[in-house]
Specification:
The complex is a heterodimer. Chain A is mainly alpha-helical. Chain A has 14 helices and three strands. Classes of the chains: A mainly alpha, B alpha+beta.
């Protein structure tokens, strides 16, 4: 009998100890749970007002921003109407996206070849990626194509496009969103939000097409591209080789197209080679892929 | 030994209390995605889930969540899942230091933000923008089995970073 009493006392003590370790006594656990639920409710009610910067944008918002940026690009450039080539580029791109740090975006990655003699590529937020026929014509093999696409995918995963949005635009938008208690916008709120959205799109397009990303952003996208290509099984040296081609061609023409919006290709080539060597990310080309690319060579 | 007994029991009960609270739920924040048989993108899909679907988590491993969808179980990649929910379990909602973090699904649930309505207004203000071309671009998709055979045919051998 004494034994059972002792055991009951020990168990009672242990239960109290266990609950106290979770931050609650056995008696007021229900109270804590209720408080927790109330707190969760409060979080939901106020969370919209807590959003501060571009990293707080949802995947869905990023998608709508990306769609409008893509609409701007596709209003200036026409796409190449070649289903087989488009499918090929998309298959290479989709393969790489699955090895990126962000395989899934709100509506996935999509790749398009656009008609322009300029050597350039753009990545709109959410995964709308464009490469020009001018750039495509300079690619020598599938490894180079893969590395260029991996670089653009990396601008998306690193959210470089969203980072170009002026913070005042987001403050304005988040303030409108945070003060609204019901789901429907009033006409004036929708108008203000659309103005903030319009500015957001302009900020990103200006950065992507006119001013270019910073040197460090390009270097970061190169490093990420090397890793993504390596993980997918491509030879990351394709990036350094392609940058070598650009460096050669840009001699004496540093102010146009790709060179206008990117740091010197020779610097990027050297940096890419350094990353591949130091991180031991060497890979190998395969004749199968060389033959595959030649079927889709620039037309 | 008698001194250790209460501590031992406390440990068991402590574990039991925590084990009871461990299950987490996640919210899908992409338009749609597949729940896969294994934790890799080339694994067959066992179910399809959509934006704002809430799923119970059974396990977390290497960037993938093992979830329950009806009677089936499978894996969802973390990039398809709401930011706050994947970082904090149900318990931390009662904790508090990360409670101020904004959750994607909370914002999405509110039906607010830069959304279809805002795009519609933006289109009205910018009628020359080519959204038809964007819709067409979005329709370009590549199925998983095509990617798998493309990888195999191209002799691509995926590797882990060293």
């Amino acid at each position: 009998m004494m034994k059972y009493a002792y055991l009951a006392a020990v168990i009672g003590f242990c239960v109290a100890l266990a609950f106290s370790a979770t931050g609650a006594s056995a008696l007021d656990l229900g109270d804590v749970l209720m408080k927790g639920l109330e707190k969760k409710d409060a979080i939901i009610k106020t969370s919209k007002a807590l959003r501060k910067g571009f990293t707080d944008l949802t995947d869905e918002e990023e998608y709508y921003i990306g769609r409008s940026v893509a609409a701007k690009i596709l209003s200036d450039y026409k796409s190449v109407d070649d289903k087989a080539l488009t499918d090929y580029i998309n298959t290479v791109g989709q393969t790489l996206a699955r090895f990126s740090s962000r395989p899934e975006t709100f509506a996935g990655y999509h790749f398009l070849l656009i008609k322009s003699g300029e050597t350039n590529a753009f990545a709109a937020p959410g995964g709308f990626i464009f490469i020009t026929t001018g750039l495509y014509s300079k690619l020598k093999n599938e490894e180079q194509l893969a590395c260029v696409l991996a670089h653009e995918i990396s601008h998306v995963t690193l959210k470089h496009g969203l980072g170009a949005i002026k913070s005042s635009r987001l403050t304005e938008a988040f303030t409108i969103l945070g003060t609204e208690a019901v789901k429907e916008y009033s006409p004036s709120q929708l108008a203000s939000l659309t103005t903030a959205f319009e500015g957001t799109i302009d900020d990103i397009v200006n950065k992507m097409v006119v001013n270019g990303y910073s040197r460090s952003q390009e270097f970061d996208a190169d490093e990420e591209a090397v890793k993504v290509a390596y993980k997918a099984g491509y030879n990351p040296a394709g990036l350094a080789e392609f940058l070598g081609t650009l460096a050669e061609e840009s001699k004496g023409d540093e102010g146009a197209g790709f060179n206008k919006t990117h740091p010197p290709a020779a610097d990027r080539k050297a940096n890419t080679e350094k990353i591949i060597k130091s991180k031991k990310l060497e890979g190998e080309d395969d004749p199968v892929r060389i033959r595959r690319f030649s079927k889709y060579a620039a037309k | 030994m008698k001194v250790l007994t209460p501590l031992f029991l406390a440990l068991i009960i402590f574990s039991a209390v925590h084990a009871g609270a461990a299950p987490k739920s996640i919210t899908i924040v992409v338009k749609k995605t597949s729940v896969r048989a294994d934790k890799q993108f080339f694994a067959p899909a066992v179910a399809e889930v959509n934006r704002l679907d809430k799923l119970d988590v059974l396990e977390e491993s290497n960037g993938w969540f093992k979830v329950k969808v009806g009677a089936k179980t499978g894996w969802v990649h973390k990039s398809a899942v709401g930011e706050a929910q994947k970082e904090k379990g149900v318990l931390s909602m009662f904790g508090g230091d990360d409670a101020s973090k904004v959750s994607q699904d909370e914002v999405a649930l509110a039906g607010k933000g830069f959304n279809e309505k805002v795009e519609k207004e933006y289109k009205k203000k910018n009628p020359k923008l080519d959204f038809t071309a964007v819709d067409k671009m979005e329709k370009i998709t590549v199925k998983d089995d095509k990617i798998a055979s493309f990888v195999k045919e191209g002799k691509l051998s995926p590797k882990e970073l060293k």
